Amino acid sequence: MIKLFLLSLFLFISIEVSANNEILDRADKYMQSGTQSDIFRAYNDYKNLYLSSFMDDDLALKIESLKGIVRSGEKLNIDISKYSNELQSLSLKSSYKQPEPKPMKKTKHIEEVQVGSLHKLKSVSWDDDVLLLTFDQQIGKKQIDYFTLHDEHKKSYKYVFDIKTSMFTSSQNINKNGIDNIKIAQYNPDTLRLVIENSSAVEISHELDSAILKIKLKIESHKRVEIIDKTDKALPTKKSMDKTVVIDSGHGGNDPGAIGYNQYQEKDVVLNTAKKLETILKARGYKVFMTRDSDTFVKLSRRTEYANEKNADIFVSIHANAVANGRANEVQGIECYFLSPSRSSRAKKVAALENSADMSDMNMYGKDSYLNLLNHHNILASNKLAIDLQRGMLGSLNQKYKDVRDGGVREGPFWVLVGAQMPSVLVEVGFITHPKESERLVDDEYIKNMVKGLADGVERYFANN
Predict the structure, then answer these.
(1) Residues 455, 458, 462, 465: is their CA dihedral positive or negative?
(2) What residues have CB less than 8 Å from 279, skipping those under 6 apart?
(3) For 242-255, b where at least 16 C-beta lie within 10 A, e where not — what string?
């Protein structure tokens, strides 16, 4: 009887381990596909595995699931700080060794390097095609291991830098036109790993300049031309010609919105931005309608009603953010919001500014109840749209402007989004109260770069959904 029980227990554990491995493999495949919907599926799978690791007291599974939660959560702009902190803690306290990448084709042997005291990574930036990693103190050649991995079957080239130093709790994805993926993360407690991945070979060289590691990427010119043609001179496609976008310029008329630096008015900034976005989307083959195309006021409830009448596929409301004078020199950045019953105190403050123009006849209790009832079926799609728009703006602006701050994707109770029968997002294009950012918001060149990124985000959203 005992033997039968032990055999049954062994079979149960084996089946459970096998099931966990299958879920892990499935989640990894979802991540490789790169679409937002698949990344959401991966995130849920990793979360389920994380719960299983507690029940099974499986440390290895817990670490693998935490790594997956962090990777997928970052791509979805979900707050994963507690998981990231736990992963860091487990990596430091446990003797668990993270698995090495599958050996494909190494071009350089990795030497073991012992370092007395760890350096800290201070910043990551671009100087044309040179990636600059700046540390808090001088770094030596023996602290850097560089090797390449090439998988001919998958047409994947990976260029890996292992640096004996430390970073911070979360990983980062670094955008660069012509390169499929660049990621930097804490590989283990004393090794920072940078991976440059591309579908074709990239000529890479690196050198040390005191506390700066300079990594030069020679990107093939034909790939650059292909990207420019795809984004700036995109021809209408069948997909784009079937899609309708309604663009909403916040405020207007007797409602100036926020008054910023040099007395710039939000209503003027966002109308100019909306018109430029309308032009580029129409050039790419989209049907585009504007809730206002002049200095007139439109009630908030009428804006989404108009989008519904036009059977819009997406609704994008454009605004500019603001803070009190005491913080005007500090607070800057671009943000995207989508409507959701859950909201932070920060989101409530931003929404209060944007909602103030039209309180309608409802009291605040009635408004909150209404917000909780509407748009539930669109929350996920609106979140995806917000992520794509935010990513598009940052990707386009960062090519020319190195100090654009990423305010992230957030949930908020924005009255202008209530009632939309399609995915809807409110874009805060910057802080009109910040001296430098406000000047950029009235600079046509800056706005052209921004709306190009928004248009890229719209295309990415429709391509993936």
Answers:
(1) positive
(2) none
(3) ebbbbbbbbbbeee
Amino acid in position 383: N
Q: Where are the beta strands (DSSP E) in 395-457?
A: 406-412, 424-431
| Residue 103: per-residue pLDDT | 46
The order of strands in the sheet holding 130-135 is 121-127, 130-135, 212-218, 203-209
For the chain, the residue count is 465
- Rounded CA separation 69/98 (Å): 16
Going from the C-alpha of 29 to that of each of 180, 405, 463, the distances in angstroms are 17, 32, 19
d(C-alpha 451, C-alpha 327), whole Å: 27
Taking alpha carbons only, the member of 8, 186, 15 closest to residue 90 is: 186
Closest among 391, 409, 255, 398 to 339, alpha carbons compared: 409
* Bridge partner residues of 412 (DSSP): 339
Rounded to whole angstroms, the Cα distance separating 426 from 253 reads 20
pLDDT tens digit string along 182-202? Answer: 888 877 777 888 899 888 888
Stated as kind and residue range, the H or E segment containing 124 is strand 121-127
* pLDDT grade for 7, boundaries at 50, 70 and 90: very low
The span from the CA of 61 to the CA of 77, in Å, is 24
Cβ-proximal residues to 441 (8 Å cutoff; 6+ apart), any chain: 264, 269, 273, 320, 429, 430, 432, 447
- Strand order, beta sheet including 334-339: 287-290, 244-249, 314-321, 424-431, 334-339, 406-412
| pLDDT tens, residue by residue, 299-348 | 988 998 999 999 999 999 999 999 888 889 999 999 999 887 554 555 55
How far, in Å, CA of 359 to CA of 463, rounded? Answer: 37
- CA 38 – CA 464 distance, rounded (Å): 10
- pTM of the entire structure? 0.50
Half-sphere exposure of 300 (CA within 13 A, CB side): 24
